[in-house]
UniProtKB/TrEMBL annotation:
<dbReference type="InterPro" id="IPR050336">
    <property type="entry name" value="Chromosome_partition/occlusion"/>
</dbReference>
<feature type="domain" description="ParB-like N-terminal">
    <location>
        <begin position="4"/>
        <end position="95"/>
    </location>
</feature>
<dbReference type="InterPro" id="IPR004437">
    <property type="entry name" value="ParB/RepB/Spo0J"/>
</dbReference>
<protein>
    <submittedName>
        <fullName>ParB/RepB/Spo0J family partition protein</fullName>
    </submittedName>
</protein>
<feature type="coiled-coil region">
    <location>
        <begin position="322"/>
        <end position="349"/>
    </location>
</feature>
<dbReference type="InterPro" id="IPR041468">
    <property type="entry name" value="HTH_ParB/Spo0J"/>
</dbReference>
<dbReference type="Pfam" id="PF17762">
    <property type="entry name" value="HTH_ParB"/>
</dbReference>
<comment type="similarity">
    <text>Belongs to the ParB family.</text>
</comment>
<dbReference type="InterPro" id="IPR003115">
    <property type="entry name" value="ParB_N"/>
</dbReference>
<feature type="region of interest" description="Disordered">
    <location>
        <begin position="240"/>
        <end position="268"/>
    </location>
</feature>
<dbReference type="Pfam" id="PF02195">
    <property type="entry name" value="ParB_N"/>
</dbReference>
<keyword id="KW-0159">Chromosome partition</keyword>
<keyword id="KW-0175">Coiled coil</keyword>
<feature type="compositionally biased region" description="Low complexity">
    <location>
        <begin position="242"/>
        <end position="268"/>
    </location>
</feature>
<dbReference type="InterPro" id="IPR036086">
    <property type="entry name" value="ParB/Sulfiredoxin_sf"/>
</dbReference>
Length: 349
């Protein structure tokens, strides 16, 4: 790659390049460095016809050298003519340099995706520049803010008074404009940490807080907004306790009802079955009690009752009824034999 000396008078700045903000103090330091030890790295230019050149990157070095009254500059002359490739190279170069502001990045990405000359996708830019898609998207989200806020945005994560970092702004980016910019200015003025900004953003996104209340909150300081968020959260937690208890009681009631519905339903017991069961239970009681229970429990139906009940039985019930009667007779016969023995023993004493 050839490096040649080109007269500064033949070099033009690229007014369309991504970087346009230059810190005056940093520029003065660069001038001092060039004056003492010379230009350490050449700038890159392209030909534009009429024996003139336009800067691809190196605007700050060009400005500093021109202010020092230098007559020539060391330059790399590019043969690239594709506007897309040139603009991507300018962005890539500036991404490695200090002072390339988040807003300049955002505007450059936005231009590549929306300018008819480029119409790039975020995926394409991610691949060409080696940046995650989320990085590019977050930068573009900064453009949602108004000019008063954009002027305060700086690189890095250090929180400074009347300055805003990207991390401070991103929690606010999805709020309505009437809340977003005023809150951003409060954050800058009060040097608010990101954790507090997230709390405030959450409060302003809450649909339970009316728009009129949110409007009044904008008159508070950052510290007061955080205190308001804390009070709001505590009140909500207190209101939720009775509802939680009610929900728990309702759930327990539902569980009991479900358990009851799943419990087996006892089948109706016929009179013969009851008698047979009674006869069996009596066997475990004292003999006098057994006798009284048996006399009470075992009562044969009258003939008229039998005729009336039998007439009501259908075919399916008849078979079941006969089975029950046979069971009763078997139990009674067994009991009868036992009671005969009891009678004989009692007579023999």
């Amino acid at each position: 790659m050839d490096i040649i000396e080109i007269p500064i008078a033949f070099i033009d700045e690229d007014t369309d390049q991504p970087r346009y903000q230059f810190d005056e103090e940093a520029l003065q330091e660069l001038m001092k460095s060039i004056e003492e030890i010379g230009l350490l790295s050449p700038i890159k230019v392209r030909t534009t016809g009429n024996n003139r050149y336009k800067i691809i990157y190196g605007n700050r070095r060009y400005k500093a050298s021109k202010m020092l009254g230098k007559q020539t500059m060391s330059c790399i002359v590019s043969t690239v003519t594709d506007e897309m490739e040139i603009y991507l190279e300018q962005i890539a170069e500036n991404l490695t340099r200090e002072g390339f502001s988040p807003i300049e990045e955002a505007e450059a990405f936005h231009k590549l995706m929306n300018d008819a000359r480029f119409s790039s996708s975020i995926k394409y830019l991610s691949g060409k520049l080696g940046k995650p898609e989320s990085y590019i998207k977050n930068k573009c989200d900064l453009l949602k803010f108004g000019n008063a806020v954009k002027k305060l945005i700086v690189s890095g994560t250090e929180i400074r008074k009347d300055k805003l970092t990207e991390d401070q702004l991103l929690p606010l980016k999805d709020l309505p404009l009437e809340h977003r910019d005023p809150l951003a200015l409060i954050v800058a003025r009060d040097e608010m940490p990101v954790s507090d900004v997230k709390k405030i953003a959450k409060m302003f996104k809450d649909k339970d807080i009316s728009e009129s209340t949110k409007g009044k909150l904008l008159y508070k300081s950052g510290h007061e907004l955080v205190e308001t968020w804390s009070v709001f959260q505590n009140n909500r937690a207190e209101r939720a306790k009775p509802a939680a208890a009610k929900a728990s009681a309702k759930a327990q009631k539902s569980q009991k009802a479900a358990a009851a519905s799943e419990a087996p339903v006892a089948e109706p017991v016929s009179q013969p079955q009851m008698a047979a069961t009674a006869a069996t239970a009596i066997a475990a009681a004292p003999i006098q009690v057994k006798l009284q229970h048996l006399l009470t429990a075992v009562q044969a139906p009258s003939e008229s009752d039998l005729q009336n009940e039998a007439a009501k039985l259908d075919v399916s019930e008849k078979d079941k009824f006969l089975d029950d009667v046979n069971t009763l007779v078997e139990h009674l016969e067994q009991q009868l034999e036992e009671w005969k023995k009891v009678r004989e023993l009692t007579l023999s004493k």
